[in-house]
Amino acid sequence: MLGEGILKGLAETAKNFAGSYVSKERLTTVQYPEERVAPIEATRDFPFLVYDGEDAFAGLRCVSCQICEKECPPKCIYIEKSKDKKPDYVGKPQNYPVRFDIDISVCMSCQICVEVCPFEAIKMDTVFELATDDRFGGLLLDREKLSKSNEYYHTIHPTEATEVDARLAEEKAKVEAKAKAAAEAAAAKAAAAPPAEPAVKPEAPKPTGGAE
Amino acid sequence: MIEKADQIFVLLLHWLVGFLPMAWQHVASVVICVAVIVAVYPALFAVAVLMERKGLGRMQNRYGPNRVGPFGVLQPVADGIKSLTKEDIVPRNADAVVHFISPLVLVVAVFMGLAVLPMGRNMVLVEMDASLLFFFAMGASTELSVFMAGWSSRNKYSLLGAMRAVAQMISYEVPLLLSTVGVVMITGSLSLVDIVNAQTRYSWGLAHWNVFKPWGLAGFVMFVIASMAETNRSPFDLPEGESEIIAGYFTEYSGFKFALFFLGEYVGMFGIAGLGTTLFLGGWSSPLAALSWVPSWIWFFAKVELWICFFIWVRGTLPRLRQDQLMNFAWKFLLPMTLVNLLVAAEWRFVEGVWMRWIVGMAIVAGAYVLMGRVGMRRERLGPRSYRYAE
Amino acid sequence: MSIVFVVLAVLTLAGAMAAVTLRNLVHCALALAVAFAGLALLFLQLDAQFVGFTQILVYVGAVAILVVFAILLTRGADDGKAGTVFSRTWLAGLGIAAAVFAVLGWAVLRSVKGLAQAAGAPAVTVEDIGQALMSRYVLPLEIVALLLTAALVGAVIVAMYEKEDAR
Questions:
Q1: Which residue from B55, B62, B374 is facing A29, i.e. has the nearest CB?
Q2: Could you tell me if B116 and B124 are in contact, meaning their C-beta atoms sit under 8 angstroms apart?
Q3: Under an 8 A CB cutoff, do A20 and B58 touch?
Q4: Which residue of B has its CA nearest to C70?
Q5: Nearest C-alpha neighbor of B146 from the set B173, B106, B108
Q6: 3-state DSSP percent of chain C in helix, strand and coil, to 5
Q7: What pLDDT sits at residue A29?
Q8: Do the chains contact at B140 and C61, CB–CB below 8 Å?
Q9: Of C54, C45, C12, which is closest to residue C121 (Cα–Cα)?
Q10: Which residues of chain C does B332 touch, with a Cβ-Cβ cutoff of 8 Å?
Q11: Which residue, among B58, B228, B310, B375, would best test binding to A if mutated, counting the most A CBs under 10 Å from its CB?
Q12: pLDDT digits 0-9 by tens, B266-324
């Protein structure tokens, strides 16, 4: 009959109107900024640099390989490599970034820098309330602002962080095992060989035969 | 005491005017009444705008504006300040004089229409013999202002919107007028005061409102639909379709002129709601004899607000009608139904027997509705398409 | 000859003159609407309420819109470079206008002399008009209705022809 659909529609809207005062599912608004929706774990906004331990400089995982700078599509990362080295989490001396700037007004949150980093040093943060009224430097984050601790990483992406930690621990264990094996081999070699051997350089047969 | 509450504005007016000398009293009372109307209706407009935004929000599962003031009650103030302080841009090629005049014509015509509505017992500004005709005449003048607005902007989209708007308003004016002719026939007078007085009789405690009769019910439904189309209100708001031709005929208006158009549209809504209340819902009378202690002007404004709520409800529910669907509906369904309504009003007058005329009336209305629904609103069968190429 | 009558007459005449002398066609149509409104106000000043409101409803609300639509759908709102407003045969036009005015004036003067002194014209209610239309003037009413129906049917046929043509 003509008009039936209209009446059904009016009933539905009336249900919405009345229901919005009593039930939450008919009024799904979250009143930002007083209330916030909890972000899911896969939320990503802008990158940050991870450091282990307490000291942001000593524990910084980034070794300034500059792969993320080259792979970044809008080229928003600027890195200056250091001349000297500092030990990383396994103890090996590595370079470190003297300057690491990300311009988040350019960054498009594509996560490519995270995907290509071989050192698990740069990860995606979930902070988006970074608006500022400083037009010229307010959206350029430097190394201090970008460095955040591993504990913080655990709070925002728990499963990812535990995976990363597991991987790094595995690496470290492998390196340590290798070092121990090498040390053992060296010790065994030192023990097996004659003890008071004069420190004579073992003569490598010089290839002069025939040239005299 | 009840009498005093009912007539409080009339008594206030007499008291105020009593301070002036005899010769000036008539003019002064008219001036005061006009000033009150011009002050009250824009205030009602502000309330209606807020109610619309919050009501639509709730129907769409969200809050309406709730930041400016508690529960957003100061939102109309913020809107008003914004409208007044925006730069008034007139396009260089636009016809400046006509561009300036059209919102004025709209607002003047709409406010003049309010002059004949009886807003309470003894509370009508001008009591005329043909006041219903005056209201419709003022409604017809608004079409001219819409066209002037669209044409003077020298903008193809504005002109398109204006022509659509005028076509729509003209098409729906015919069912609007015809649906009220039944009321006029039975009441025997074109004066709105007489029509309201004829509805304030009570039998078994229930008032003799026109909506409680078969011709009145059908006329009421058609009046509601046609009045939504007259004021360019959703679902008939193709001319000002916000998502289609930006704002249609008032695209090129900014600042205060836009606010005037907006004001004109909403006060026009109030006016036509007031007219519908007067014609079908008994004006300022209460529905039950037991409730007639409530002052008459409260009843009138309560009913008008109910109309506005219904308009908002329909806006939140229905999608926009396309131009050809609009016109089909007006000419192929509403017009024949209004003519059938006239027939029903005539039989109400002439058929003997209280129950007989009810049965015959309802039967004719229901039968015509079902028949017209099938015949008039049939979708045309589209054959294979043929194309004609432009030369 | 009250001041109100003079003002209204000037308004009507100004509207009518603007309607024939302005360059832009749509401006002419709007001036014509002003002239119609002036006529309606004159009717109201003579206490003919029904005729006055019907004049606004029909002329300003429908005929003016019709004129405007006709202009827009045919010539378009191009700039009014339609030549001068004074045509070459203005002498013949003046003669015809003078003749029409003479006939109208003669008819009006003859009818006014026939009436008695109207001391306070009796208020004609709408009911009186209705009674007169249905009893004394029912034949003109029916003829006008027939004419309107014929016009409506003709319009529909012409529009239908165009639709057939476009197919």
A1: B62
A2: yes
A3: yes
A4: B163
A5: B106
A6: 80, 0, 20
A7: 85
A8: yes
A9: C45
A10: none
A11: B58
A12: 999 999 999 999 999 988 888 888 887 888 889 999 999 999 999 999 998 998 888 88
- Given a cut of 70, is residue C23 above it in pLDDT? yes
The residue to which tokens 């205060």 are assigned: B256
The three-class DSSP label of residue C121 is: coil
Q: Spell out a b/e string for B11-43, using b for 16 or more CB atoms within 10 Å of the CB, else e.
A: eebeeebeeeeeeeeeebbeeebeeebeeebbe
Residue A35 DSSP class? S
CA distance C164 to B253: 40
Task: Report the Cα B255 to chain-centroid distance in Å.
Answer: 25
Burial label for B376, CB within 10 Å (0-12, 13-18, 19+), is: middle
CB B319: neighbour CB atoms within 10 A?
8
* The two structure tokens encoding residue B19: 């301070």
Question: What single-letter amino acid sits at A146?
Answer: L
Hey, which residues does A78 pair with through a beta bridge?
Answer: A101
Distance, first Cα to last Cα, chain C:
61
From C44's Cα to the closest Cα of chain B, the distance in A is 11
Asked if B147 and C65 count as a contact pair (C-beta separation under 8 A), the reply is yes
For C37, nearest residue in chain B (alpha carbons): B141
Overall pTM surpassing 0.80 (yes/no)? yes
B158 CA to chain C: closest CA distance, Å?
13
Q: What digits encode the pLDDT tens for the residues B26-64?
A: 888 899 999 999 999 999 999 999 999 999 998 988 888
Q: Distance between CA atoms of B94 and B161, rounded to whole angstroms?
A: 16
d(CA B239, CA C148): 29
CA distance C5 to chain B (A): 20
| Contact state of B61 with A27 under an 8 Å Cβ cutoff | yes
- Peptide bond between residue A33 and the one before it cis (omega within 30 degrees of 0): yes
**A209 Cβ neighbours under 8 A, 6+ residues apart:** none
In angstroms, the CA A111 to CA A122 distance is: 10
- Are the CB atoms for B33 and B125 separated by under 8 Å? yes
Distance separating alpha carbons of residues B351 and B349, to the nearest angstrom: 6
Beta-strand pair A140-141/A122-124: unpaired
In the complex, which subunits touch C with 3 or more CB pairs below 8 angstroms?
Answer: B
pLDDT given for residue B304 in this prediction: 94
Query: In a mutagenesis test of the C interface, which of B112, B143, B194 is the best target, namely the one with the most C β-carbons within 10 Å?
Result: B143
Chains A and C share 3 or more Cβ pairs within 8 Å: no
ipTM given for this complex: 0.81
- How many angstroms separate the most distant Cα atoms in chain B? 80
Q: How many residues does chain B have?
A: 391
Q: DSSP letter for C123, please.
A: P
